[in-house]
Prior knowledge:
The structure holds two protein chains of two kinds.
Chain A: H1 2-30, H2 35-41, H3 53-61, H4 64-94, H5 101-113, H6 120-129, H7 137-160, H8 164-172, H9 177-188, H10 190-206, H11 209-214, H12 223-233, H13 238-268, H14 271-274
Chain B: H1 2-34, E1 37-39, E2 44-46, H2 50-57, H3 59-90, H4 97-109, H5 112-122, H6 129-136, H7 151-176, H8 180-188, H9 193-204, H10 206-221, H11 225-230, H12 242-251, H13 255-282
Antiparallel strand pairs in B: 1-2
Helix pairs in contact in B: 2-13, 3-7, 3-10, 3-12, 4-7, 7-10, 10-13, 12-13
Organism (chain A): Paenibacillus woosongensis
Subcellular location (chain A): Cell membrane
Main location (chain A): membrane
Amino acid sequence: MQRVKSFLIQVPLWLYFIISVYPLFWMISYSLKDNNEIFVTNPFGLPTQFRYENYINAWTQFNLPQYFMNSVVVSTVATLFIVILALMFSFAIARLRWRFREAVRLYMLVGMFMPLQVIMIPLAILVKDFHLANTYGALIIPYIVIGLPFSSLIFYGFMRDIPSEIEEAACMDGASVYRLFTKIIVPVVVPAIATVVIFQFLNNWNEFMLANILISDESMKTLPLGLLFFQGQYSTDWGGMGAVMTIASLPMVIIYLFFSEQVERAMTMGSAVKG
Amino acid sequence: MKSTKSLYSYGFLLPAGIIFFIFFLLPTIVSFFFSMTRWTLTDWEFIGLDNFIMFFKESSLNIGFRNTFIYAVMTSGTKVVLGLLLAVLLTSGIRSKDFLRSVVFFPTLISTIAVGITFSYLMHPSRGLINTALAALGIQGPNWLGDPALAIYSVGLVDIWKGVGFATVIYIAGMMSIPADYYEAVDIDGGNAFRKFWHITLPLIRPAMNSVIILSFIGGLRTFDLVWTMTKGGPGFSSDLIASIIYKQYQGGFYGLSTAGNVILFVIVAVLAFPLYRFLTKREVDL
């Protein structure tokens, strides 16, 4: 009986495993094949001969290093600011008592429900007016703004649940508000920070729509723009295309593996998903 | 004392508050105004609600409402159900569950553009893996992205493939925070696995379920990247979503019309998602 039950659970899971992993396996394996193998001799299995030159070609012939660099800079800086600003903001609305804090919380919550497209065109004009067009700032600032509501909501959920005794004890010892923030509150919400880092870095790294509108300069393009550009431009070099897509996807997988334990802890603490 | 404290609050609040205002709320307000103009970025002419009327009357524009609604309901509905199912299986104490859990999340990590391109290949009517596999079983596979009646659903399937892992992770987190003695109580009463699920798991993961419903529904309403990569709204306008229509109008230089589309999308999200959020969060059971 136990065997049958275990079998009934395992089968759908492994089926799902194949469905969710095979397309990724396929992408990576064709990044190591030539066109003949991709289309004719061996479309679906492991490459018979690993053609690492696809990667070397992708890296040297396309403008890939530049795109990669841009994505790293934009995603890292934006994520850093999102974390700092959202931590401060949620601290003010979760732990400090003042008159309009509920109103201010709703003010930020609006951003959660706002489709990004609404700000698209005015944002393009604004970016131009601030002389940010075709600079890193053209993406970094909007990404910070887009990331703030969700991140603040997560931090708010965590900070709200911190027992006030901890704070009172610190205040008795004469700690200032800044000390309270940096030495007491921030260390407690480290798992939440890991969660926010992953999700915001993921969003920034893969963001396409705004980048597509705000960036026209070739030297400022990020990877998602590059991917779509390659697809149009080098549509005959399939192996190279696969290599580009694999290179673009790899950093997120690495970051996830690096932070996933913290994220699982944060989410299990419940607050993160409660909102 | 009190005033110094509120001074501190503003210090913590203002950096985020100001940047959010300038780059988010201000553009939104500006959008509302320009949606009622004929707009060339340098010049504008006030034309009242003409843009909105056009959006509802023109069939190449209003097809977006139908498609967006179908898309959002299909993708979020499937993610809510399938994610729950996977989460239940993955928390059932089987071997290799840790490994499977991290794998489930992988598709979420891959760039939407890369996913779109990869699946366009996989869904190729004659050379793609999916139809080749179906042919091996003696089934004539459909033209996934080339059939106007099917394209939007095909894109939706890929969205589900990519997003269900995220839903699953949220569910698993919700389930892990349920204290084990709740289940033991059912054991003592002689309840079976189904009773545990129905009377303990389901009510207590409501907050997680609400997050999944809201996030995936809003995500579905504002989808752009995937449909743009896979079909560009085609064939014809058959898989156009509101977001891709807005983008096409923007590309065409119809800024006023495009902005009107943005405002409509905003209103739709506000009218559907916000009450849903209020309704769902009211029914949560506290631990």
